[in-house]
Design a protein that fits this description.
heterodimer, A: about 260 residues, alpha/beta, Rossmann fold, 2 domains, five-stranded parallel β-sheet, 5 strands, about 40% helix, B: about 375 residues, alpha+beta, seven-stranded mixed β-sheet, four-stranded antiparallel β-sheet
Chain lengths: ~260, ~375
Amino acid sequence: MSKPTLAVFKFASCDGCQLALLDAEDQLLAVAGAINIVNFPEASSRMESGPYDIALVEGSITTPRDAERIQQIRRDARYLITIGACATAGGIQALRNWGDTAEFMRAVYATPEYIQVLDNSTPIAEHVSVDFELRGCPINQHQLIEVIQSLLAGQVPRTPRHSVCLDCKRRGTVCVTVAQGIACLGPVTQSGCHAICPSYNRGCYGCYGPAAQPNLISLSTHAINAGDSGTQTAHRLRNFNAYATPFREESQRLKNQSEEEA
Amino acid sequence: MSTQRHSSYSCFLSYDQFAKIFDVLHAFDYEVIGPTLEQEAIVYGSIRTVDDLPRGWTDIQEPGRYRLQQREDDALFGYVVGPHSWKQFLFPPVSTLSTADRTDVGWQFSEAKQEFPKVAYLGVRACEIAAMQIQDRVFLEGPYVDHEYQSRRRQALIIAVNCTQAASTCFCTSMNTGPRCQQGFDLALTELPEGFLVEVATPEGEAVINSLESEDVTPEIETAAETARQNAVEQIKKELDTTDIRNLLMSNLEHPHWDEVAERCLSCTNCTMVCPTCFCSSVEEVSDLSGDHVERQRQWDSCFNVSFSYMNGGLVRNSIRNRYRQWLTHKLATWNDQFGTSGCVGCGRCITWCPVGIDLTEEVAILRQSQEQSLLESEQEADHLPG
């Protein structure tokens, strides 16, 4: 039986998530032994055409051309897996979804008429059906290996949906919110990074997007009662996963509330 | 820790002698774990000398808030309980239970090989001894004995410390677990300005004390220790009325107040993680990429984790309301049915370390008030019935 083929594709993104595959040095040879990487421009100039068994897709859809390109990748791929906050939630570039794209282009480009761009940055799943979404900004290489390994073994990947808090406690990190008053998105953010930021005395930035059933209203209400403004609280949610539905809705609610009060 | 009965007695250790206890413990091959300053909190970690203890520090606690503060004296144990509990050493957050390797002749299974060193737990409070005894019932006294826990527990020397102050979140007096350490220790210390009154309860504890120069306890020392311990009792202001608490909770499973708590609860798992008695875990098989080596791993898990109640067909507790209710009713009501005690020791950690400051004693009080109110109303109604 021939080895399954894997292809990596990039849309609007920084390439950091694809690099997680190259960074998985300890397991890279095992990965190469188990699958045939046939299209990975970041790693090799050999680029074969489809069909592919597994397509890893990084980045969000931001141009009309990309909106078409993803359709062909979907047709070519048996399993389409999106990797990273751009591909699963629209990424940091989705902040423009709240702004005026034409105005941004006039401000940045000398000849904006050359630019063909969509008004919104959107996740891949808004355009084609996706078999599995791997969260993170960037993704965790161990989770990526877990997803590939599970696909090969015919298992469901273990990518927990619980909060970052559970990971902080398992590794013995003292809660930065309770002990130091640092704002932290950990209670509403999905696990995946092994709770890095709180272990360096920083609040969680929400890189892995909303946890399952997040109670965002309670967390923002508590922050506002503790002295933060509604705008500050909304801005914490407008980050790499700003356009993920629960974060988007809560930041919008806070913005609307602040405007009404003003 | 020895379970052997031993007639207990008291002695006095000066600060200088107490400072030598670490060398003595190390000479007896004990690793010492105790309170130390780290990450802006008093946590439990490795202690090499008396200088590793949080000398001159205290903690200020309230719902959702913990702060360190410097004391005006040089007390070594002048605080209450912090974010860590001893369960992280007796029941570690992550452990490998067994491994399996694929070979030419089939799968080879083996139990994980672990060493269990002798550990002296220094600074264990009364509520924490109660918590250990609750976990003993869970892990040792049921039909399935947890061998890892059993091995660690057997190797433990408990050096308790009587609280001489309390936090606003403490309510051990309501749960009858403290603040005075009554049993379950090898040595129990009460800190005084000149040193420690030491209660010696077991031969293991006595062996340690015999290696130090202790003094007789004078009536003055006895009185000073009693006053210091009473200080903690008087500072405890929080109460949990446990009268018929099982039926109070179990007869109010559909009370609208659960919805109100669910609006505030983040379901983040913090309360269960800091709880010294919560014992839930999940076990998973983790394989390498080749699938030839598999480890069976156990890690702390929580009834607040949405996936924890996943069973074939779906989630059993698919809302924050259901998960909070499950936790509170298990902790304070059905734990009794299962293990014969409450699951709560009144340490107050779940109150302090809840990021939004939910206080279980207040939630229970609201349910109780509501029940009393409706009883009163139904009695008044009955009084007005004709005939």
